[in-house]
Amino acid sequence: MSKFLTRLTAVSLVSAALLSTAQAAEFTIRLGHLWPAVAGPHKNLIQPWADKIEAESGGRISVEVYPSGTLAKPPAQYDAVKNGIMDATATVQGYSANRFPLTQIVELPGVAKNAVNGSCILQSLLDENLIAQEYKDTKPIFLYTHGAGLLHTKDTLIKVPSDLSGLRIRRPTTVVAELLTELNAQPVGMPAPGSYTSMQRGVIDGVAFPWEAMASFRLNELTNAHTEVGGLYTISFIVTMNKGTYNSLPADLQAVIDKNSGITWAEKAGEVFDALDVIGKKQAEDAGHQIYTIEGGVNNPAWKPLLDKASKSYIEALEAKGLPAEKTYNRAKELAASCPS
């Protein structure tokens, strides 16, 4: 009986502690994102950010994290935050087509070297107000990119652009779609979480993904041929908050959010994604997959003219709309040289 009472007392103490913590939270931030709960971005980036906010607020802010598009599907996550359906998100800007055109300049070939480099470029463009006008409807916390985007297929090893002819390749954004079109592929748009089922059912022949995503979304299970074209593309991400949610916080709690915003967390995100790329690639290597590296990356003579054409077309199209694309692109290239990599 004494052991039972001891256990019961312990359980009661834990329950009381949890209840006390819940009662202590004055504000709850519901943050939704696209990755599975078991994936590295959730465990190594989003949840640690949430935990830090809770700790540094002394428990006055509770951050509830909802993975796998629980609160809103990936294409709707930014608007869900804007409209207050959820309080914050970590999502891909390019899932909202044509909404963040200057931001997506970082996705063009040869801009970012890796995730740390790309994240520094992107956050710096925001901090320098070159892309800030694209985020007037939410409160950006930090921006970042994943690592180098690659081509992954089943059985067909891509060595030259013509090898992509006719292949249906999942693309993440319209920017990457233009690249794939120039490379003779047939781009198929879909958010990352839908790629596994589409590949499994034969809807697509391959995917454009970084190594991180190959592990996060289990695509290494379905592909066995991988082509690394250094600098091919990267994808921009944002952690952002509903303006009303942020404004409802008292100044001292806004300061907690502000302290965990900007370049420090952008580069931390880059470090996480670069580390996850190593894990994803090792997974493919351990499985005995074919991995082909294009010599010279985007500067390879077989690839460069096509990729340069896609970049030029994108920049010119934005300039024709009156957007400072050339200025933003040139600054991104300058930042690439000065940012860590």
TrEMBL record:
<protein>
    <submittedName>
        <fullName>TRAP transporter substrate-binding protein</fullName>
    </submittedName>
</protein>
<dbReference type="Pfam" id="PF03480">
    <property type="entry name" value="DctP"/>
</dbReference>
<dbReference type="InterPro" id="IPR018389">
    <property type="entry name" value="DctP_fam"/>
</dbReference>
<dbReference type="InterPro" id="IPR038404">
    <property type="entry name" value="TRAP_DctP_sf"/>
</dbReference>
<feature type="signal peptide">
    <location>
        <begin position="1"/>
        <end position="24"/>
    </location>
</feature>
<keyword id="KW-0732">Signal</keyword>
